[in-house]
Amino acid sequence: MKIFTGAQIKELDKYTVEHEPIKSEDLMERAAGALTRAITASWDKDTAVVVFAGPGNNGGDALAVARMLAERDYRTTAYLFNIGNTLSKDCAINKKRLQDCKKLKSFIEVTNEFDPPRLEKGMLVIDGLFGSGLNKPLAGGFASLVKYINQSPAQVVSIDIPSGLMSEDNTYSVRANIIKADMTLTLQQKKLSFMFPENQNFIGKLQILDIGLSKEGAESIAATYSVIEKRDIQARILHRNSFAHKGDMGSALLIAGSYGIAGAAILAAKACLRSGAGKVTVGTPKRNNDILQISVPEAIVHHDKDDKHFTEPLDVEEFDALGIGPGLGQHENTAIALITQIRKTQVPIVLDADALNILASHRAWLQQLPKGMIMTPHPKEFERLAGNHYVDSYERLCKAQSMAQQLHAYIILKGHYSALCQPDGTVIFNSTGNAGMATAGSGDVLTGIITGLLARGYKHADACLTGMYLHGLAGDIAAEEKGMESLTAGDMIEKIPQAFAFLDK
Questions:
Q1: 494 in the same domain as 450
Q2: Which of 3, 368, 409, 430 is the least crowded, having the fewest Cβ atoms under 10 Å away?
Q3: CA dihedral 62, 65, 70, 73 (to 10 degrees)
Q4: Cα-flanking dihedrals φ and ψ of residue 267, to 5°?
Q5: Residues 235 and 210 in one domain
Q6: Residue 395 and residue 159: Cα distance in Å, rounded?
Q7: CA atoms of 398 and 400, how far apart (whole Å)
């Protein structure tokens, strides 16, 4: 599913109007109908409704919803803020339609002074002040109104996007001047800003309403951002030949673990095996031998000459993919061995955890990385790599996009909606996963899955996307059984087979 910018949404609206064909006010009527159905499904006629409408098309949607609710016998009061006497065409049309509605409790057009209504518990506020076209932070009277709404005990539904929240970049937004909605009814598709954690307390419960925008038009618009869906992954799954043997399924090498952190190597190895790799070898210090042999008997263990650290690069000619970093530590000898290993490796490489931390401490080495590297940092690891701190997720994502292009790498910026930044500048968000996966070892599991898929023969992008999706899906299946509070990385590994089975349906 594509994620369009505010400008692209306007373009899609225009395409729909021209090619369906349909009048713009009728398209707004269609949207208002979908919004009204969603509202009436959650709030009954005993709910007093106060609608706040701005002067643009978002306000037009709100006025149309106010009329439809009134016609359904909801006690509805509507406020239209027309400070500059510059209503959009469709907003003006819906103002006239609302004024003609006999069942409306009250309609107030604010052109100067505003006496705010009393907002009480049990009331519903419909926020239609500003939509996805907003391009600067709210200030003045509108900022005061937002604060007034947020401080009230009334429930709030935002139309399309909470007023004050930009559809993309909120780096310079004033957080106190953004509506905190209990529910956001967004039209047709998610906005990019919905994918970022710091914006979740503004959005509340999210519903995506299909308003019948042109599918042909959507396909014709090139989108930088998109969300991976089940059918996308199903098309990428490589199925085994009936006569396949382990030699056909690929040989994966994991360089992971240091003394005291053998668990990272175990988790990565188990996940790698569960992802379908025919053979898995773990390069690890000698002291990790016994626990690995016992915990993962299916894996081959290769001992480093050092008892506690990775210090000696391995010969990779017999392997199809390399994953390196989980539990590796950042010993000086390990750092030298890491860059040497990367330089001599000709197969696809996944870099995670301490491999990324070492590169962050030797940032000049980043320019020596071969093309096609897969990097899986969480936000703090990425910031160390970038040499900067980012307050806003959009700014961090833009930097990850830029780095992926500069290094010709695949960067998975991990989070609730993990984002794959590709060498061509596009970004694909994952749609699976849950908060229970915020636990130690979860990243090691992802590294193991992606490395196994690469060994299995998946192309770089396909391995990243399939790996992200399987990882999150396994976490979702495990959370249903264990609950999010008790979820462990081992639980995710156990559910990888069920995740594969789900994709076969």
A1: yes
A2: 368
A3: -140
A4: -65, -45
A5: no
A6: 26
A7: 5
- Tell me what the pLDDT averaged over the chain comes to: 96
pTM: predicted TM-score of the whole model, two decimal places: 0.95
Same domain assignment for residues 209 and 347: no
Q: What is the pLDDT of residues 160-207, one digit of tens each?
A: 999 999 999 999 999 999 999 999 999 999 999 999 999 999 999 999
Q: Helix crossing, 24-42 with 89-99: angle to 10°?
A: 60
DSSP for 409-462? -EEEE-STT-EEE-TTS-EEE-----GGG-STTHHHHHHHHHHHHHHHT--HHH
Please give the backbone phi and psi of residue 186, each rounded to the nearest 5 degrees, phi first: -90, 150
Judged by DSSP in three states, 253 sits in strand
If asked whether residues 381 and 459 sit together in one domain, one would say yes
**Three-class SS state of 49:** strand
Final residue belonging to a domain, choices 197, 222, 247: 222
Q: Given phi > 0 = left and psi -120 to 50 = alpha, else beta, which region is 206?
A: beta
Given this model, what pLDDT does residue 246 score? 86
What domain count does the chain have? Answer: 2
For residue 327, which of 388, 249, 252, 267 has the smallest C-alpha distance? Answer: 267
Residue 173's alpha-carbon distances to 93, 151, 158, 393, 433, in angstroms, are 31, 19, 18, 13, 28
**Element housing 185 (H / E):** strand 183-187
> Do 213 and 250 form a contact (C-beta atoms < 8 A)?
no
245 and 307 share a domain? yes
Q: Residue 244 above 90 pLDDT? A: no
Please give the full DSSP string across 281-322, using - where no structure is assigned. EEEE-GGGHHHHHHH-TTSEEEE-SSSSS--SPPP-TT-SEE
Instruction: Please say whether the dihedral angle defined by the alpha carbons of residues 327, 447, 432 and 391, taken in this order, is positive or negative.
Output: positive
253 shares its domain with 334: yes
Within 10 Å of residue 242's Cβ, how many Cβ atoms?
5
473-487 confidence digits (pLDDT tens):
999 999 999 999 999
Instruction: State which amino acid sits at residue 72.
Output: R
CA angle at residue 462 from 457 to 465, to 5 degrees? Answer: 135
Cα gap 393→385, rounded to integer Å:
15
Residue 245, pLDDT score: 87
For residue 78, which of 186, 144, 153, 159 has the smallest C-alpha distance?
159
Cis (ω within 30 of 0) for the bond into 21? yes
**C-alpha dist (Å) from residue 384 to 274, 359, 396, 399, 406:** 31, 9, 12, 12, 17
* Range(s) of the domain holding residue 139: 2-222
